[in-house]
Amino acid sequence: MHARIRRITGRHDAEDLLQAAVQRFLERGQEGVRNPDAYLVRSARNLAVDQARRERHGAVAPYEGDDVGSVPCPSPQPDAVLMARQRLQRLREGCAQLDARTREIFLLHRLEGLSYRDIALRLEISVSAVEKHVSKAIGFLTEWVMD
């Protein structure tokens, strides 16, 4: 049955989901359940959906009934936010110090996610030139941010 649950949910923890579903089934009683197998599969699917929601929102409690008080806050601390904003501002200032061509190539690669080859084709330069510009930008910005 766990193979069926794995196929339906696409999750690697199908056995854990099945165990939690069986536990739920036994705790809540079996009255009114005509097809226990279908009930268990549906219950395991619901548990998988709940788990995926918790993971998406940063919670770590795996199943219903876990101690919610032990879930860490997904938000960063205010001082970490301030430091990240300061580093980002410093990075922006450093980007402004790059020559226009190097900045353009660096941003195409890092922000737009273009490959070196795609940038080379777009700007009609060699892949080697793109590599040199990106390397130059990274070297400069690393030093700039660390100062």
TrEMBL record:
Domain RNA polymerase sigma factor 70 region 4 type: 90-137
Keyword Transcription: yes
SUPFAM superfamilies on file: Sigma2 domain of RNA polymerase sigma factors, Sigma3 and sigma4 domains of RNA polymerase sigma factors
GO biological process: DNA-templated transcription initiation
Record keyword Nucleotidyltransferase present: no
Annotated InterPro entries: RNA_pol_sigma-70-like, RNA_pol_sigma-70_dom, RNA_pol_sigma70_r2, RNA_pol_sigma70_r4_t2, RNA_pol_sigma_r2, RNA_pol_sigma_r3/r4-like, WH-like_DNA-bd_sf
A GO MF label: DNA binding
Similarity remark: Belongs to the sigma-70 factor family. ECF subfamily.
PANTHER family: RNA POLYMERASE ECF-TYPE SIGMA FACTO, RNA POLYMERASE SIGMA FACTOR FECI-RELATED
Record-linked NCBIfam families: sigma70-ECF
Protein name in the entry: Sigma-70 family RNA polymerase sigma factor
